[in-house]
Design brief:
Length: 442
């Protein structure tokens, strides 16, 4: 008896499974009949009586509309899931490049925090180890910096590396070459595939030491981004890079505010810096003293350069930028200086002494507007002068400008600087992707 019941239950289960498979076939897999003409609905008897639908030889199916709705809903769910799968797949495919940036020069902080808008953890600028990450374009970037980041003592987590190094003087070059030799070892052992170099170059553009490391000269460095008007810039594998702000003095990322844009400023101009003997800066100071112009500007001159700021001197410098309509930028060893970019951050228009300094900087095969080729190419809305004797006329014009005119000028300057950083960021990313990604070479 018990065996008969088991056989009956098994038969019922089998019948149920077969019926379910048939129903699934009918609903989802069986070809649908082509749609015929809409049935003619007749109404018999007075209102309220049951309607009869003539379907030819077929009887009316009261569940047909529900089946169609369910099929339509199923189709929509399927298409939505398919879109999600395609999106996820394309998102994974787009992140096709992983780049690790080793920031071993302060200019790396300008790249990461100011141009990329990236963050670092911990926030403490004195920390021995700081890191951050972000996705941009097809690339996932990670950034490492700090004294504890030394060759062989951190994890290399990408096949593509950007080295940020200081090549300004012999001691810095010796340190930079150690990092380059470490990267070369990783290339030879096939732990990484590509290397790009962001270099704080020599102020007189004496960068011959780096040439043997470039791939074009038999080395392993695929791309070079270098500061100042380096004559070998070709926009193919050597690119000019902005000097940026003095991140080694912890100059901050300045977010524009209403007061920064709209408040009247107490001074027409400012100059806080070192006055070198027999330089144009001495000429500038003499001109400012004429007719009491120095009373209209925030002037704090010193005779010797100081690499480190005190809290008080740094606050005074920031206040001077914030409270001045113009920032005077006389040449030093090079025409390009941190002051230009720092003034832009605070909406204080740079007045730049547009003359070439001694050394090997100058026109390249791509640019013929030295000095400051990169800034001029990007249409920087600065005041360029050839001699500080032009300054009194500039300040006289400044006196006559209305606050509204100055506000509009600040907006234009801040907008240009924002676009400049965004353009440099995109150019950097595109250059890496075009060089490092297979099939993306332009």
């Amino acid at each position: 008896m018990r065996g008969a019941r088991k056989r009956l239950c098994s038969a019922l289960i089998l019948a149920y499974v077969l019926f379910s498979l048939y129903a699934a076939y009918t609903v989802f897999l069986r070809p649908r009949r082509p749609a015929g003409p809409r049935p003619h609905r007749e109404r018999r008897g007075p209102r309220g009586f049951t309607d009869h639908v003539a379907l030819g030889n077929e009887e009316w199916n009261p569940w047909d509309a529900d089946e169609k709705n369910e099929l339509a809903a199923s189709q929509q769910r399927y298409e939505a899931n398919l879109k999600m799968i395609k999106y996820a797949r394309s998102h994974l495919e787009q992140t096709s490049l992983r780049v690790q940036i080793w920031g071993k020069a302060a200019i790396g902080l300008y790249l990461w925090q100011h141009i990329f808008g990236g963050h670092l953890e911990p926030a403490d600028v004195t920390a021995q180890w700081r890191e951050g990450s972000q996705k941009a374009g097809k690339t996932y970037f990670s950034f490492l910096t700090g004294p504890s980041v030394v060759p062989g003592y951190f994890s290399v987590e990408a096949e593509h590396v950007v080295l940020v190094l200081n090549g300004r003087e012999p001691a810095k070059i010796a340190h930079a070459t150690q990092w380059l030799h470490y990267a070369q070892t990783l290339i030879e052992s096939r732990k990484i595939q590509h290397v790009a170099l962001v270099l704080l170059g020599n102020e007189q553009c004496s960068n011959a030491w780096v040439q043997p490391y470039l791939q074009r000269n038999g080395g392993f460095v695929n791309l070079l981004f270098v500061t100042y008007d380096y004559a070998f810039v070709n926009e193919e594998d050597i690119f000019q890079w902005p000097l940026g702000v003095a991140t080694y003095r912890n100059f901050p990322v300045v977010e524009p505010s209403w007061s920064l844009l709209h408040d009247p400023r107490s001074y027409l101009c400012n100059f806080l810096g070192t006055v070198y003997k027999n330089s144009s800066r001495e000429t500038l100071m003499e001109i400012l003293k004429q007719d009491g112009l120095d009373k209209l500007c925030w002037i704090a001159a010193r005779e010797q350069w100081q690499p480190q700021e005190t809290n008080e001197s740094f606050k005074n410098y920031q206040d001077a930028l914030l409270q001045s309509d113009l920032t005077l930028c006389p040449v030093g060893i090079n025409t390009e200086c941190y002051r230009i970019y720092e003034a832009c951050s605070y909406g204080s228009l740079p007045v730049i002494e547009d003359v070439m300094t001694p050394g090997d900087c100058g026109n390249s095969s791509m640019y013929h507007s030295a000095p400051l080729q990169l800034l001029k190419t990007m249409g920087a809305p600065f005041i360029f002068i050839k001699n500080w004797k032009e300054l009194p006329a500039i300040l006289e014009k400044e006196k006559k400008m209305s606050l509204q005119e100055k506000i509009q000028r600040r907006k234009k300057l801040l907008e240009w600087y924002r676009n400049f950083k965004a353009w440099m960021r995109q150019k950097f990313i595109n250059t890496l992707e075009n060089s490092f990604l297979p099939g993306d070479k332009g």
